[in-house]
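Shipment paperwork, digital attachment
Item: protein structure file
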Amino acid sequence: MANFDLQIFTIVLRESLEAALIVGLIASVVSKQKQKLHPVIFGVIAAIFASCLVAFTLERSSEFFDKYMVYFDVTILLFSSIIMVQMVYWMKINAKRLVQETKESVIATESSHFQRLALFSTSFLVVLREGSETALYVLGRLISFPQSSGTVAFSFTVAIVALVMILIVAKFSSKILTIAVFFRVTGWILLVTVAGYLIAAVDKLSSEGILSFDDHQVWNLQALAQKSSVLAGLFHFLTGLPNRPTVSEILTFVTYWFFIFMIFRAPKTRPSHLNPVKTLLILSALILVGCDSSSPNLHGDKLDTKILIGVDNDGDSPLKLVGERLFRESRFSQYFFANSKGVLTKLPDKGDPVVEKLYTLNEILPNPYKGQSISCAACHFVDQTKDLLGAGSRAYTDFLRRSPIPDRNDGQKTTVRNSPNMVGMAKQSGMFLHNDGEFVAPEDLVRASFLGRNMGWLVGEEKIAIHHMAQVIRSDDGSFPTETGLASLNYRDLFNGVAPPRYSIPAEYRMDITRASDDEIFKGVVKLVGGYLRTLDYARDANGYYSGSPFDVFLRKNNLSLAPVGGETALQYSKRLSASVNGLNTPSFVTPADGRFKLHNQDFSFSEKELAGFKIFFGQGQCFQCHLAPDFTDHLFHNTGVSQSDYDKVHGSGRFAKLLIPTLAERRRNESLYLPASEKFPKAKSLMRSIPQKDDPNRADLGAWVVFANNSLPLPQDLLRTALCQSLNLDCSKVSDDDILSRSIAMVKTPTVRDLGQSQPYLHTGEANNIEDVIDFYLKYSALARAGLVRNADPKLPLVQIKVDDRDALTAFLKSLNEDYD
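Attachment content:
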């Protein structure tokens, strides 16, 4: 079932009721005059169609403002605010005269030669006015507080049902005061909504760097949101304020309510020169006066350090927009195949239980995909949960230690590992995309994911899955909810390249799906989603250097090198960067004046504390040995004891060291026992890629050991062999596969530590709830490695020399690598 938005409900109900009352009054007078109702009925029907056309035009008009989207959004928000306040004010002043004036207007048509036209026009204009206002207000609501199409449809439907019930009650009740109270209460709800619109307008101008004054956070209710999304939601509903308002947002809020108080005071005490339109125009002008006419966003000048914060340099390209739609496509799943009853353009009667609720470490929240089925996006969230109190934006991860997957009665209900951050991981060629190195190209990952267990498909069902996905593409009419804003565009037009320019994908991804075979369609989908994954990256400047975090700003403010130069390796650059930072006599620090976070509960800063953490990270902590700048990962594999910790927590300390692990020859003789299911062994037990289980001590997760020299996985072998040798500092020409395999036990790919604030919990087992837990883990396991108690420990692990007292500074530095990824 979709979520419910009270403000959309209020907007639709109030406008519909206002139209219904006036039209009902017209119909009543016409009936008493013994005139026909046909003109009134036809006028209402025509106005409904016209209102739908207005809504469609407003929604599609955003396509023509793609380059200047922020100005389109702000214009809609300000215009909606002006009209909404004027409407509430007008109803307050004219409600008592409305009935009599409407009666007189209708009676006056009796002697007119154009009686039918007059009745048609009156009914048409009444309904069209309310319908157009509704479309405008709802669009403003979606701009200020994004909602899914399901939420809009559900709230709209509930409002219409409520309207019918109110009219029925009013018909059999003499308590006319009920309607008056209704308009009074909903009027104030709409005024609060306007406050939210104006704040959203200020926020959009500020986030684009268009507002010229420095902005600071006033208070933070994110902690309340995490403890109680209901209380935080109530606060937002009653005030229109976000959880972390800035000075400009508070000033807008206070100024708005001051003018509203002056406008709605008793007529005898209200200044005669005040009226809603003038007042809102003045307030809008004040907002725009705060805009810097020299803003780089207005004139296309080179962006400065502050403006670059959070910029998505790829933009919403057609490849990204259409790829994201496929990434969020839930009809590719086995559950949809089994429950759609052959109808591929509608939701199943009942959604997959795996997306019924959104589970986090702390609470259960509404799932944006409730009523649908599993998709890539169901485990790799981005902005779907941005405005969900207690959740927030993610960097293509979910919120759990291990992700839930569809139940196929095979004992698997979650993934073996934590959902990895996918941002920037496919930007370059030859970068491994799974913790164990199974995939070296995004297309390989996409293909395996669409046909794999996470989407509900079992080994041996590949042909069924491909045919089903091809049929979904062929039959799509654009009506199925994918929450990507692609309006009613269907896959046929999108793949043919005949969609509007904003959605016209590059020629290399196009195909005629009416002629393509199942395999060709599937390959085309895989290629397009693979291309989409390659677009995912953190904010970078025009030269391709990272630019979105306080650390990146610190480097610029101190004229430090931003990346390797002249054939320099990442390790050499990291050492040079460390020396340069240590050589700063009077470093220029980053303060909230240089930027602010919207998606993180912290100040945008790089101070003495973060600098101390940097020196630990690149010094005695030796963290940089695996987390090389500027990516803060070496893209290689290491065993730091995570799998051992996971296993020993279930079976007892020291038990992982005693786990029987076969040699390469033994493994090849028993592939179906140790390795994951494959076409050759569809019923394989996958003992060495499993979550440790109390009743089966033979199950463990050995990471790259499962992939290396696995004949069922030929694609990554050459690159993986080279990477493992490089990770272990071995000469590949002098070691055997058997030797490499024995040294690959529990090795996993190094994750980036950029933007950790949007990807917790951490480690590939998800066992660390926060950064402090990760630091404590390395405090413990580096000491165990020095004592020789970590099985197959990475040679660099004993070099980690951090103390408990280093935790706060190191945490501060890691948080300085956060940015607003959205």
